[in-house]
Amino acid sequence: MKNFFRKVAFGIGPKEEVPTDPLNWALNQVNEIPDLSWQGKIYSEKELRNHYKSWVYGDRKVLRKKYKNDKNLYKTYKNLLRHETGQKFWESLEISIRHNEGINSQHPVLAKLWMFWGNFFAISEKDFLANYSTGPYQREIIRPNLNQTFEKMVYDVTTSWAMIHHLDNSESAGPKSVTASDEWRRRKKRPATINENHARELLELHTVSPKAGYNQEDVVQLAYIMTGWQQRWSKTRLETGNIWFNSEYHQPGKKNVLGKTYKKGRKSLALVIKDLVNHPNCRDFVADRLCKYLITDEPSKEMKQPIIDAFKKSDGFLPEIHKAAIKVAFENNNKFKKFQTPENWFIQVAKIGDLQWPPLPEIMDSYELGTKPSRKQRSPERLLRNLGHHPYRAKQPNGWPDHSDEWISPELLIRRLVYAKLSHSFSKMENNNNEYYENIVQKNFDNPGKIMKYIDQKNRIVEKQTLLFNHPEFLKS
Amino acid sequence: MKITRRDFLKTTALTSLYFAGFGAAGYANSGTKKNLIVIMLRGGMDGLCAIPIKSDKNFEKLRSKIKLDKTLPLTSDFDLHPALKTFKSLWDQNQSAAIHATNIPYTGRSHFDGQNLMESGGKIPYQEKTGWLGRGMKIAGLTGNGLALALPMPLLIRGVPMNNNYFPVGHKLPYPSTLKMIQDAYKQYDEKLLSENMEIIQTRELSNTSSDNSWVLASNAANELSKPDGPKVAVFEVDGFDTHAAQGATNGAHADCLSDYDNIIRSLKSSMTKESFDNTLILTLTEFGRTIKQNSSNGTEHGYGSAVLMAGGLVKKAQVHTDWPGLKRKELFEGRDLNSTIDARSIYASAMSTVFDLDFKRIQKDVFWGENLQNLSDKLFKA
Q: Of A16, A98, A207, A226, which shows the fewest CB atoms inside 10 Å?
């Protein structure tokens, strides 16, 4: 039963009480969105996007021209610019804030669901998004929507700067739009064409999934509806301007997506999203993904149904969807144990092992813009890269996989072995005793005797931790 | 020279009609260890950027902003991207070739579905849980012979147990006795997959403290592949071919990706023994090609037909094999993409037949569900 605390959250820390009513403990965490528990400085998405602006402008418009004949000088000044804009620091700060929610907050279940949706609406590794914008996108777009409707979440994601940049919607221009007949297009031979990327992912990954049976024409028509949603471009901001609806780029006329007709204009995006999120395949897709994340690689119809029903009954209200998923996870707790992804695994290691993780707010706050971040200040980003699971650096817009097999290979297991061993260097002196291990094993496992016997095969703490964190019952929950 | 589809039919004869009469490739075991290396080019490799067609007015018009200003000479009909220097030097020794206007039979233009299908070899995305290479290895009995130079294990070589992957972490492993205890726990809990992987971790010779840049990875892989009892299959990944914007020409984003590919084959060539390289086949695999027409951001969109690059001693001769479909509007797939006239799975099936010494028909049946594929082994590869 105790694996439930790791199934829907990250386990029980050494100083925490084991909840007597696990189901309600979990259900009660998903109604409200409390402030983040991180005690250090938190920067706004706009502020960080401003650093992104300084980086792209400085590189593209200044350095490339200034040092076009000297490759080495160019490289040197580019590195200076990286530090002036905090390029090597922000993502580590964001990961610290994220992990802190799982480890030190009063609502780790909400944190685990936040991570789920961040990956569902993934911003994959593209340009410098991970360095400046993906963390704040997950904080300011995904997290506040965890107690809103799925429809609102999709709309906010779709019109967010990060997603529009990630999926190139600013590049999309209606072939019959006002801009299509602009003189400069003729002169520069740049006719107005659509970019289907964002429209395709809105269907495939963010709402109905390919099972809905849409065709190429549906993608094109949705792309037409989406034309005009773009970054406000300026000579100094370049692609980092705010999102607006530029009617001059919008394809005029009616559009037809999955059999429904939409009029031209700004409002058509909200209308089509409303229809997409109410499509039966969308509910099924969301239920399937939630079950895969929390319960098993192969969810059954019976598992998905209560989540689908909750979605339908509540009009896609996310707290109700989450509660249904938590209940299904609870009912299936002992029957199905899910192999945890490397990041989830490490957060559990940090919480149960009471590691000095994430780095303290004082350490992160001591970073000075313009300087190279210290090893410690960069450690979150490096650690996740080395585990093979950096949440802002998925390779594709479908995010990181949930399927266990994807995470089992010699090299990925080596990473867990190595980091279970290295976790010792983050351990606190006060925990350097057997009582500590008895306490955490008691709190997190139903068969503490068996687990203790296994880790007691070794005497040194470093090896006890390596054994515990790689035990099959720790890897799966 | 202006080429037409007819010319190609005459000169290359890579058509189903021509191949219909060919039987199985030789499958007697010659005794020499042969290697198959697949380099996955993720994001959609632009075959027409790698191997542009010469003197085609349609092409030049549609690509005015991303046209290559210098190329390497290849054939009377095709040029080569200047980033593919090693490919060119192998070409001059009859150790590289290409198949143009080819792709897996997938026209949906989604990266995720497309990459899933290029690895699974199937037609319905996410339906198959194993890769075509893994299934081929399984029927060839090549357990423990696969090496992926990537951090997650690619779907492509799933389907046969005990594959290895290598992407050095830079730290030492726990003590062997600790590993043994963990292994015992996996066994006790009947965690087969975990247990098998742990077995590999405990026995392999690759260093965990080496570098993970692609040149070093390729050189490590080359050493392993050159060992008589080493792996026979290796898989690399190159990301970044999805150039919707700033695809560029000679020095653009696509050029950097092609250069990554070229570095891998250069490193393999320089680190493998001559005998090993002579018995090796290196193929590329991508989910789709890109639109002929540049978009307004000087990039290209998801397309259909692309090219497969082949290198290694098992390549029969330097040639661009194609049944060229043409680039006039009506000749394009859906009026926008280079068409695919050869099912790329025929190339992969033929390659496995040659390298694994398996009957082509058996691969066709057991790896590709009896689908209508052509045996190209004799045309493309040395027996």
A: A16
Q: Residue A395: its chain B contacts at CB < 8 A?
A: 42, 239
Q: How many domains does chain A fold into?
A: 1
**Long-range contacts from A124-128, C-beta under 8 angstroms, 24+ separation:** A124/A166, A124/A393, A124/A394, A124/A395, A124/A396, A124/A397, A124/A398, A124/A399, A125/A392, A125/A393, A125/A394, A125/A395, A126/A165, A126/A166, A127/A165, A128/A52, A128/A55, A128/A56, A128/A87
Q: What pLDDT, on the 0 to 100 scale, is given for residue A68?
A: 67
pTM for this prediction: 0.84
Q: Which residue of A has its CA nearest to B154?
A: A406
Is residue B221 within 8 A of residue B234, CB to CB? The reply is yes
- Residue of A197, A200, A463 with shortest CB distance to B178: A463
Residues 176-195 of A with CB under 8 A from B: 185, 189-193, 195
Domain of A240 in residue numbering reads as 167-277
Q: Out of B167, B239, B244, name the one closest to residue A171 (CB).
A: B244
The β-bridge partners of B381 are: B315
**Which among A189, A408, A467 has CB closest to B194?**
A408
Answer yes or no: is A238 within a domain.
Answer: yes
Q: Is residue A204 part of a domain?
A: yes
Q: Which residues 6+ apart lie within 8 Å of A367 measured at CB? A: A86, A89, A93, A373, A374, A377
Give the per-residue pLDDT at B209.
83
- Listed by start position, the domains of chain B span 5-116+230-380
Q: Judge if ipTM > 0.90.
A: yes
> How far is the alpha carbon of B98 from chain A, nearest alpha carbon, in Å?
27
Provide the pLDDT for residue B45.
Answer: 97
* Average predicted confidence (pLDDT) for chain B: 88
Query: pLDDT tens across B141-191, in order?
Result: 998 899 999 887 789 999 987 788 899 888 999 999 999 999 999 999 999
Q: Cα angle at B287 between B230 and B4, to 5 degrees? A: 110
Give the mean pLDDT of A445-451. Answer: 97
